[in-house]
Amino acid sequence: MFGLKCVDLYNKSRMTGDCQVRFCERFGVKFPLPTRLVPLPNIKRIYMEIISIITGIFLITIGMIIKHGKMYYLIAGYNTMPKEKKKKFDISGYASLIRNCLVLIGTIIIAGNYILTYLELLKWNQFLIIFSVPGILSILLIKRKKYDKN
Q1: Half-sphere exposure (CA, 13 Å, Cβ side) for 43?
Q2: How many domains does the chain contain in total?
Q3: Which of 77-86, 90-99, 116-125 bottoms out in mean pLDDT, i.e. has the lowest?
């Protein structure tokens, strides 16, 4: 008859102890589920990797846009400042500081995800973001006083 043959990828017998595994080799026969599953990539790891790359690139891009695109209106509070205060505020230096902080945060998110994936510590990825972002933002708030001459 015309039959399908089951190919064993691992070249091992499917017999266990006393019982023999039997297959009907006809068309239309439903085969049992495989006993040796081929491991698929971890979907959660892939999604976390994609999200961290997108987030990191977004933060780096926003930092570059603020500094090199001179889009200072993206900085909170600068838009609503009176003109007298704007003249005394070193916006170029502050934009450089914001760019550096956003690039640092984006780099930590991307590199941290890859390092933690390599070390198989994916659960620590959240703590990396929770502790690094507020630390860098506190540095930003402390150094802000240097650019405000009011």
Answers
A1: 0
A2: 1
A3: 116-125
